[in-house]
């Protein structure tokens, strides 16, 4: 029975604890790829076309491992898709596994995401193998980290493995533990097919590539399959496994992980979390799939060049396929023209999406100020969700405004606790609980508005704890709030790119900062520029940018034409990075700076 020798597992950890490095070492150890080749391939990845890049950057790898018991095992190492460190992404992978390696950095100890991921793996009933990584670092206290693992996670000390992913220490012990303690997949080849779609990507030649885990039944080339929720029928054109390159096979069996292509050209036809079954021998009902996650943070994304809109649209669709927690719809802005309103799980997610769009699709983008989703009850008792400042009803129509709150969970050094308290107080946080984890660390829990967390709270926590603090948060309902729309007027006209929804008590300070920053960043132009921050008709702050006197070329005294020309060229260069809003030119960095206030 081949299923007995299959093991499906993930690597989970707080960011930077060595997940990717360990995956690399495991691949090397089993000879999936030799050392020199490995690096060459990774470098290639950056340069080759994105369609090939995606196939190599597989989120599942199948390797063979000959264990000490003499059997050769098929190991499916399922990575969390993309570089996103979000719970939801991890959760998708865990649903396809029976076990998880929980890495803890020996020099950092347990951090917020270590705990969050641990509980997630627990929820999925996975066998958890704790591994202390980076034991090569000098001066670390391994016993202290062991103590944290037994105290906080209640795992057995004897079960803890030691490793250095960097030096390749402990790899064999990890693989032996995987085959000995992680259960083989259950299910039966003869049952109706149940394949969980846990991820997907797009290949120019093959179309949509589905990443699936078979929980029951088997799948062969040419089978007619049905996506149970999308209710779409198609024919399997290719199936295979990632080694890590896509390697086609004739069939996939119960318990296995692999890819499926079926000449699906429209990325939107695939739902992550859907179940694939056989059209003529279907499963009774789909697998539980995934909870639909709700984006928490919204912003507008626009191409710097209006002509890139079509390209941006295609990029959004492809990216959406790879990242199902990202949502978007078209919108128009007075300042920027056609673009998209996009929803993200958090600000880090937003930054990653922006980076991927710019890097993988070679686009130049502007993002508008991000905001959370407010819940507004109007005088006529209609309840609406507002994810865009432009959609906030007239203040006289608003009966109740509510904003989302989170439970923020932090692990910080004991000596930084006062600064952390001060910081959370400034962010309207309410203390809930604390818990000392030995002498050096303390776990603190606050309830605070999501809007206060998304901006730069994590950076601030990192800075007041000198890098030793960590943060995790989860949605915790809505609370009434005093909400206003803050606008920036340029020569009397609202520039919607700078509009934001904000707590009333914070509007004054933010408005002031915004106009001051814009005065610094917008270059002087031929006429006076008036900058104002306002709520409705009330001006909160204003600044002026005086006009430039004469044409800059006047400096050249009319003489040397080549010098003049050079100056003109230089001015034109500079203009490329400017965005025309009304008759004022605003540099791209002004929009970026506004995001950070
Ligand atoms: P991930 O975010 O969990 O995927 O972490 P990475 O694998 O990207 O590693 C984060 C950093 O830690 C990188 O700079 C690695 O080189 C380093 N690192 C990973 N494993 C080890 C280790 O065993 N020892 C040491 N000294 N550094 C390591
Ligand atoms: Mg990584």
Automatic annotation (TrEMBL):
Domain of life: Bacteria
Entries under Pfam families matching the protein: EFG_C (PF00679), GTP_EFTU (PF00009), GTP_EFTU_D2 (PF03144), LepA_C (PF06421)
Main location: membrane
UniProt keyword Hydrolase, yes or no: yes
Catalytic activity from the UniProt record: GTP + H2O = GDP + phosphate + H(+)
Gene: lepA
Signal sequence residues: none
GO CC list: plasma membrane
Similarity remark: Belongs to the GTP-binding elongation factor family. LepA subfamily. Belongs to the TRAFAC class translation factor GTPase superfamily. Classic translation factor GTPase family. LepA subfamily.
Role played: Required for accurate and efficient protein synthesis under certain stress conditions. May act as a fidelity factor of the translation reaction, by catalyzing a one-codon backward translocation of tRNAs on improperly translocated ribosomes. Back-translocation proceeds from a post-translocation (POST) complex to a pre-translocation (PRE) complex, thus giving elongation factor G a second chance to translocate the tRNAs correctly. Binds to ribosomes in a GTP-dependent manner.
Membrane topology type: Peripheral membrane protein
Enzyme Commission no: 3.6.5.n1
Official protein name in the record: Elongation factor 4
Biological process per Gene Ontology, one example term: positive regulation of translation
SUPFAM superfamilies per record: EF-G C-terminal domain-like (SSF54980), P-loop containing nucleoside triphosphate hydrolases (SSF52540)
């Amino acid at each position: 029975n081949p299923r007995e020798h299959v093991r499906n597992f993930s690597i989970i950890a707080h960011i930077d604890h060595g997940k990717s490095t360990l995956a690399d070492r495991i691949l090397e150890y089993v000879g999936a790829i030799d050392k020199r080749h490995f690096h060459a391939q990774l470098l290639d990845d950056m340069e080759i076309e994105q369609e090939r890049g995606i196939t190599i950057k597989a989120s599942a790898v199948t390797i063979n491992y000959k264990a000490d018991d003499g059997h050769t095992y098929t190991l499916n190492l399922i990575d969390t898709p993309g570089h996103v460190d979000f719970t939801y992404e991890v959760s998708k992978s865990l649903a396809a596994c029976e076990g998880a390696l929980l890495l803890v950095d020996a020099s950092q100890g347990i951090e917020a995401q270590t705990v969050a991921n641990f509980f997630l793996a627990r929820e999925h009933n996975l066998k958890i193998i704790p591994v202390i990584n980076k034991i090569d670092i000098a001066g670390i206290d391994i016993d202290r980290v062991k103590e944290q693992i037994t105290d906080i996670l209640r795992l057995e000390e004897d079960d803890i493995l030691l490793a250095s992913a960097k030096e390749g220490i402990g790899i064999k012990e990890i693989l032996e533990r995987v085959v000995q303690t992680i259960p083989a997949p259950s299910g039966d080849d003869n049952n109706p097919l149940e394949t969980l779609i846990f991820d997907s990507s797009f290949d120019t030649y093959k179309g949509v590539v589905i990443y699936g885990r078979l929980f029951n039944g088997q799948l062969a080339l040419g089978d007619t399959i049905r996506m149970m929720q999308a209710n779409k029928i198609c024919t399997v054109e290719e199936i295979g496994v990632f080694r890590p390159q896509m390697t086609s096979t004739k069939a996939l069996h119960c318990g296995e992980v692999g890819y499926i292509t079926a000449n699906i050209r429209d990325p939107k036809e695939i739902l992550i979390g859907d179940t694939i079954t056989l059209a003529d021998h279907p499963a009774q009902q789909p697998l539980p799939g995934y909870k639909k996650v709700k984006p928490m943070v919204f912003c507008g994304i626009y191409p710097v060049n209006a002509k890139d809109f079509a390209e941006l649209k295609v990029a959004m669709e492809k990216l959406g396929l790879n990242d199902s927690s990202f949502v978007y719809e078209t919108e128009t802005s007075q300042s920027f023209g056609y673009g998209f309103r996009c929803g993200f799980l958090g600000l880090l997610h937003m930054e990653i999406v922006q980076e991927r769009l710019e890097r993988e699709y070679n686009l130049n983008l502007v993002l508008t100020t991000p905001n959370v989703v407010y819940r507004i009850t109007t005088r006529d008792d209609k309840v609406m969700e507002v994810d865009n400042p432009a959609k906030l009803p007239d203040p006289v129509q608003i009966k109740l405004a509510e904003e989302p709150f989170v439970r923020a969970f932090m692990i910080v050094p004991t000596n930084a606790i006062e600064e952390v308290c001060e910081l959370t107080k400034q962010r309207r946080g309410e203390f809930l609980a604390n818990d000392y984890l030995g002498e050096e660390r303390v776990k603190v829990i606050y309830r605070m508005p999501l809007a206060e967390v998304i901006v730069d709270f994590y950076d601030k926590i990192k800075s007041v704890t000198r890098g030793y603090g960590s943060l995790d948060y989860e949605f915790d309902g809505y609370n009434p709030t005093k909400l206003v729309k803050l606008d920036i007027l340029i020569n009397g006209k609202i520039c919607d790119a700078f509009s934001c929804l904000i707590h009333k008590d914070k509007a004054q300070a933010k408005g002031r900062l915004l106009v001051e920053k814009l005065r610094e960043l917008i270059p002087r132009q031929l006429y006076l520029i008036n900058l104002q921050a306002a709520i409705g008709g009330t001006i909160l702050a204003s600044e002026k940018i005086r006009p430039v006197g004469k044409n800059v070329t006047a400096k050249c005294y009319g003489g040397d034409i080549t010098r003049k020309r050079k100056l003109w060229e230089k001015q034109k260069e500079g203009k490329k990075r400017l965005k025309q809003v009304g008759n004022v030119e605003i540099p791209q960095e002004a929009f970026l700076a506004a995001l950070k206030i």
